[in-house]
Amino acid sequence: MARRYDSRTTIFSPEGRLYQIEYAMEAISHAGTVLGVLAKDGVVLAAEKKVTGKLLDLSGVKDGGYGGSGEKIFLLNSNVVAGVAGITADANSLVNYARQAAQRHLFLYNEDIPVELLAQRLCDLKQGYTQYGGLRPFGVSLLYAGYDPNYEFQLYHSDPSGNYSGWKATCIGANNGTAQSLLKQEFKEDMGVEEAIGLVLRVMSKTMDSTTLGSEKLEFSTLTLDPTTKQPKAKIYKPAEIDALLQKHDLGKKDEDTEMRA
Amino acid sequence: MDISFALTGKGYVLIAADTTAARSIVKMKSDEDKIKVLSPHLLMAFSGEPGDTVQFAEYVERNMRLYHIRHNHELRPPAAASWIRRSLADSIRSRKPYAVNLLLGGYEPRERTPHLYWIDYLGTLATVPFGAHGYGAYFALSLLDRYHDPEATLEEGLATLRRCIDEVSKRLVVSPGKYKVKIVDADGVREVEL
Question: Is the ipTM of this complex over 0.95?
Answer without folding.
Answer: no
